[in-house]
Amino acid sequence: MKITVMTADEQIITLDVDPHESVENVKALLEVETQVPLQQQQLLYNGREMRNSEKLSALGVKDEDLVMMVSAASSGASASDLRFNPDGSAVNPAAFQQHIRHDSNMLGQLFQNDPELAQAILGNDLNRIQELLRMRNKHRAELQRQKDEELALLYADPFDVEAQKKIEAAIRQKGIDENWEAALEYNPEAFARVVMLYVDMEVNGVPLKAFVDSGAQSTIISKSCAERCGLLRLLDQRYRGIAHGVGQSEILGRIHVAPIKIGNIFYPCSFLVLDSPNMEFLFGLDMLRKHQCIIDLKESVLRVGGGEVSVPFLQEKDIPSRFLDEGRHAKEASSSGGTATTATDDRSNNPSRGGQSSEYNLCVWLQDAEFEAKVAKLIELGFGREAVVEALKVCNGNEEQAAGYLFGGF
Question: Residue 80: CA atoms inside 13 Å, Cβ hemisphere, count?
Fold first, then answer.
């Protein structure tokens, strides 16, 4: 087995020894490595002094355990001061700290192998030192437990169903761990948060942060944002409906055209207005396509008009903190840009008519002005909107037949 020895005046040394080797023979090996005479060596395991006549296995020393070596002639702390509690913490953390501090070689090796613990040794927080020692001890115990389980499985009955299940789980977990380690080495950015794409725009002269989303079929603006931009007066409520997605939001209507400024150029844009307080402005596929936009992730810019103007995507520090809650924002945007239906149009039941993306399934069907005009006329006759809508649906939009249906003619 291999043990690691942290010396008082040399580098950390790894020894390959027999579990039944005596402490005296280990000291003899260390004398060759460190030039410290055997008689001046004092070996400590878990804070307890190891006597020459004792065997490593009898002391409980296991593979990859740590042994400390101090010089009996120069050690400023007694063996009792450097002992460890069963949970791995130091019996006398102040003495342990001073012992490491006063040995520059040992401290240097500790910086190479465990910089976090080394920084704590140089600090003034003894509780932090104790916490780290407990964590290291717990980690070593967990590794030893896993090794013991793997060893037990090797000698398990091959016809034991439960043992085979454990072996299968261990093999699967090993594959997962190897995959995770490979990802850390070759694809570390996969563990970082992906910031959504935002650009600076002006809507009707009001600057705002626009969420660029090629997965949303329509461009969306919230009611509060439309009011701030002075556009609510242009809201056409004939295009009301319900947007279904992860959740649902009410479509308050449509603003048919308003100027947006991207870079230094103005473009005409139309919006659906939603009652969605957590989503301000979503620049969807309809306007991306209309204005021939290119999402250039290599240069991290949005190119508009086939490249006549380019604006950079905002860095995380430039995006308002309320927009960085991707989970909530995506849910809101999804419910806002999901399948939108109205009470007068059942075409949304046909999934082949809607666009789909990895984030949102957007299929927006809106009633036209002609249909709404029929609804308004029938409502004037004294019927409720829901009854009128139902009658028009039954009569395939025929206004006269719908009136007869309402008056009980059918």
Answer: 0
Residue 389 · residue 375 · CB < 8 Å? yes
Sign of CA dihedral 250, 253, 256, 258: negative
Number of Cβ within 10 Å of residue 287's Cβ equals 22
Contacts of 171 (CB under 8 A, 6+ apart): none
Q: Give the pLDDT confidence of 135-182 residue by residue, as tens digits.
A: 988 888 888 887 777 777 777 777 778 878 887 888 888 888 888 888
d(CA 99, CA 81): 10
Find all residues with CB under 8 Å of 348, minimum gap 6, and list them: 339, 340, 341, 354, 363, 365
Contact 6, 69 (CB under 8 A): yes
Q: Are 328 and 319 within 8 A, CB to CB?
A: no
Which residue's entry shows tokens 């006329």? 377
Predicted TM-score of the model (pTM): 0.45
- What architecture is the 2-142 domain classified under in CATH? Roll (3.10)
Residue owning tokens 């080495």: 185
* 3-state secondary structure at position 110: helix
Both tokens assigned to 388:
């009128």
The catalytic residue among 65, 81, 213, 345 is: 213
Please give the structure tokens belonging to residue 353: 């008519």
- Cβ-proximal residues to 118 (8 Å cutoff; 6+ apart), any chain: 107, 110, 111
- Check if 213 is active-site: yes
238-266 pLDDT tens trace? 888 876 654 567 889 999 999 999 999 99
Neighbours of 101 (CB within 10 A): 12
Whether domain 198-364 has CATH 2.40.70.10: the reply is yes
- Residue 209's CB is within 10 A of a number of other CB atoms, namely 15
- Token pair of 352, please? 């082949």
Which of 1.10.10, 3.30.750, 3.10.320, 1.10.8 is the CATH number of 369-406?
A: 1.10.8
- Per-residue tokens: 380: 């004037």
